[in-house]
Q: What sequence folds into this?
């Protein structure tokens, strides 16, 4: 009987130990309790929508400054077949902690030792695609490439994909960091053949006085204008004209004898006209022939111009959060791009996991301006200079040597915040602390309104 009781006690003890072990193992996974829930649905970051023709290569210059390169046959349907009919693509970027907050994106990560870490982001985006209302998948043989606009050229960041089923981030190696300019992006535009021009100062004609079967007769009504704007041409034994098929022509003069090195025998030329009627006809023919290409180039150029204009504004906005040397040095003339391939649709993050801020750790409770207790949800802290979002329930960690802003949502949907100046006057570094929050009197429903209250006031 004693042995039986002993066995039961041992089994009971083992059961307790097993439960405790499971609790301790599961505890670090608390990070996965964060769900993709926007705290203010009306202010959530809205995705931009594009209709893609999947049978040809497509490049999108997104307003954020990011560049999306989509090869043909990049999408698969649910059965694994290549999609050939139009695809609806949605894309949105997250560059700062407020954008991440408004989207409700989880920003914690449990490392191999079970420690909960917080992501510092170097750029994050969400991309989804559908065909006829049904979600499509990435074609692993023809992956989409995204040049993510970033505000850090540090190589410490890793690439993570978000698994919506397990609500966790999966690390997938590194991205490629480079710097680009507007000029470089414009150089990537499709090339249109040069348009006909009015003849200029050094324009010349070519003709053959001796050959009855004149091989230059097709050029008898046109003039050639040297591309370099310098004089070219002379009487010669032969003249060769090569159409380069891009609106320019290579004209070669074959001399009777040896020439000095200062005389050019070959020059690159535009096609030009001195007769206005002939010029107008040639220009109209050109516009009709290349109408589709010219329209596409113009549209892409406008997209690049708009994206760079928006990027310059974002640089100024970003510096509200982070006064970083690499951003100041750019001055809007260049931008940092972090390039990666898309493995799956959804959220993709370029991050560096780090520990919560140190220096102060307090047990927080909250009151309004009048000292009345309030309950806050979606409580977060931002440390200026770090592109991270620290979410808290009761225990608040912060670095007293940094500028900090803490905010959350009241039960009736109003923004309550503890400003950087409030933190400066906060002497407590531990224990229980009552945060006297500034509660905005009205519901804020746009990104700009919230940005103005938290970071521009």
A:
């Amino acid at each position: 009987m004693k042995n039986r009781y002993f066995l039961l006690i041992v089994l009971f003890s083992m059961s307790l130990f097993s439960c405790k072990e499971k609790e301790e193992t599961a505890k670090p996974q608390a990070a996965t309790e964060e769900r993709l829930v926007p705290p203010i649905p009306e202010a959530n970051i809205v995705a931009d929508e594009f209709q893609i023709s999947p049978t040809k290569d497509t490049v999108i210059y997104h307003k954020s400054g990011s560049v999306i390169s989509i090869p043909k046959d990049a999408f698969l349907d649910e059965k694994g077949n290549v999609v050939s009919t139009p695809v609806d693509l949605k894309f949105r970027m997250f560059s700062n902690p407020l954008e991440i907050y408004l989207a409700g994106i989880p920003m914690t990560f449990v490392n191999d030792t079970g420690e909960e870490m917080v992501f510092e982001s170097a750029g994050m985006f969400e991309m989804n695609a559908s065909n006829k209302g049904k979600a499509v998948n990435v074609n692993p043989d023809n992956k989409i490439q995204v040049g993510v606009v970033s505000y850090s050229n540090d190589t410490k960041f890793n690439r993570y994909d978000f698994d919506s089923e397990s609500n966790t981030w999966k690390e997938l190696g590194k991205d490629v960091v480079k710097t680009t300019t507007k000029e470089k992006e414009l150089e990537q535009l499709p090339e249109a053949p040069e348009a006909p021009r009015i003849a200029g100062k050094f324009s010349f004609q070519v003709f053959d006085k001796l050959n009855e079967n004149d091989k230059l007769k097709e050029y008898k009504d046109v003039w050639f204008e040297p591309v370099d704007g310098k004089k070219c041409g002379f009487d010669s034994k032969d003249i060769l004209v090569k159409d380069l098929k891009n609106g320019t022509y290579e004209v070669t003069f074959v001399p009777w004898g040896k020439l000095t090195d200062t005389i050019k025998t070959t020059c690159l030329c535009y096609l030009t006209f001195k007769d206005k009627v002939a010029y107008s006809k040639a220009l109209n023919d050109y516009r009709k022939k290349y109408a589709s290409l010219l329209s596409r180039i113009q549209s892409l150029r406008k997209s690049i111009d708009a994206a760079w204009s928006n990027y310059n504004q974002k640089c100024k906005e970003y510096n509200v959060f982070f006064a970083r040397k690499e951003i100041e040095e750019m001055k809007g003339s260049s931008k940092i791009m972090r390039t990666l391939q898309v493995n799956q649709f959804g959220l993709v993050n370029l991050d560096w996991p780090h520990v919560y801020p140190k220096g102060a750790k307090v047990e927080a409770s909250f009151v309004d301006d009048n000292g009345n207790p309030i309950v806050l949800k979606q409580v977060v802290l931002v440390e200026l200079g770090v592109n991270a979002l620290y979410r808290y329930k009761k225990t608040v960690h912060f670095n007293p040597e940094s500028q900090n802003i803490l905010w959350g949502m009241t039960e009736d949907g109003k923004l309550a915040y503890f400003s950087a100046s409030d933190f400066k006057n906060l002497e407590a570094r531990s224990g229980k602390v009552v945060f006297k929050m500034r509660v905005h009197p009205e519901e804020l429903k746009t990104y700009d309104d919230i940005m103005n209250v938290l970071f521009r006031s």
